[in-house]
Design brief:
Elements: E1 4-8, H1 13-24, E2 28-33, H2 38-51, E3 59-62, H3 68-82, E4 87-90, H4 105-134, H5 144-147, E5 153-158, H6 171-191, E6 196-203, H7 209-222, H8 228-235, H9 245-256, E7 267-270
Parallel strand pairs: 1-2, 1-4, 2-3, 4-5, 5-6, 6-7
The structure holds nicotinamide-adenine-dinucleotide (NAD).
Nicotinamide-adenine-dinucleotide is lined by residues 8-9, 11-15, 33-34, 37, 63-66, 91-94, 114, 158, 160, 203, 205-206, 208-211.
GO molecular function: acetoin dehydrogenase (NAD+) activity; quinone binding
Keywords: NAD, NADP, Oxidoreductase
Protein name: LAME_0B02740g1_1
């Protein structure tokens, strides 16, 4: 049976690249993003249609991942549309530039609610669906032994290099990405008895609109010309180039596929070898 995956933040950047890669790998795809991203998402849907003309067409589902109910709704809709649900990619996230001493309660709430809340709600909604569809709603402890031999779903969360070592002026963002790793580890332990694996990917300096924004805001703080902060970050990468969304997508596809069935609770860095000095 064709597997179904839902990817949040899939209208552009890393989420889009993950969608295209997973389309090549044969997944039925639900792309979720903010309602105002509908037009961009339509473009991704058209690309997917060309890659897999034989599959049931991919769909766009508007969502705000910081809203628990809306995340449960899109998981329900994706599963109802495709008749299966197997992989949840909690990719959506935002960057905030805030020095520790200047960070506001509003910025704290916003970044935590989207970057951490989005992962939490996505994990809760996907688990509910995996159990309903793939385990027959059976939570009883007596089945735990067999569950460990039968995977029922995969959850893949987006952390960051900033979740491995915090970046100055990205205090709240870094904290949120450390939190994603914590949630990933706890979820992996709690959900293993249900046959669910939970992993994270930790991208480096990916050349998406997010870094355009970070670079611009950092230059306001550091006084360096626009582009210079990004250049300095790239100079610290062993492979000496900025990361592409496609560089990230391959690792996510591995975590979504069968070759990673015995991997859980991990945050896999895909950063070209960042030098933290
Ligand atoms: N770009 C990088 O260098 C980098 C590095 C490490 C980690 N990441 C992480 O990768 C993920 C994707 O980032 P990107 O670089 O593709 O950024 P991006 O800004 O290009 O794309 C993010 C997508 O998420 C969507 N989104 C934002 N808030 C949302 C919400 N509340 N509900 C639903 N969708 C929402 C946006 O509309 C957008 O389509 C993020 O979690 C980000 O933190 C990015």
């Amino acid at each position: 049976m064709t597997k179904t995956a839902l990817i949040t933040g899939a209208a552009q950047g890393i989420g889009k690249a993950i969608a295209i890669k997973m389309a090549h790998n044969g997944f039925q795809l639900a792309l979720a993003d903010l309602p105002q991203q509908k037009e961009r998402a339509q473009g991704v849907l058209s690309e997917i249609q060309k890659i897999q003309p034989g599959n049931k067409p991919a769909i766009f589902l508007p969502v705000d991942v910081s809203d628990k109910k809306s995340v449960f709704d899109i998981v329900d809709k994706a599963a109802a549309h495709f008749g299966s649900f197997d992989v949840m990619v909690n990719n959506a996230g935002i960057a905030t530039i805030a020095k520790v001493l200047e960070a506001t309660p509003e910025e704290l709430d916003r970044v935590m609610r989207i970057n951490v809340g989005g992962v939490l709600f996505g994990t809760q909604a996907a688990t509910k669906k995996f159990v309903e569809l793939n385990r027959g709603g059976d939570y009883t402890p007596s089945t735990v032994k067999t569950a460990q031999h039968r995977l029922t779903g995969k959850i893949i969360n987006c952390s960051s290099i900033a979740g491995n070592e915090a970046i100055a002026s990205l205090s709240l963002y870094s904290a949120s990405k450390f939190a994603v790793k914590g949630l990933t580890q706890a979820s992996a332990k709690e959900l293993a008895p249900l046959g669910i694996t939970v992993n994270a990917y930790a991208p480096g300096i990916v050349l998406t609109p997010m870094w355009d924004l970070i670079d611009q805001k950092l230059s306001e703080i550091t006084g360096l010309p626009v582009g210079e902060n990004l250049k300095r970050q790239i100079d610290g990468i062993a492979l000496k180039r900025g990361e592409t969304p496609e560089d990230v997508a391959g690792v996510v596809a591995f975590l979504a596929g069968e070759d990673s069935n015995y991997v859980t609770g991990q945050a896999i860095a895909v950063d070209g070898g960042i030098n933290y000095n």
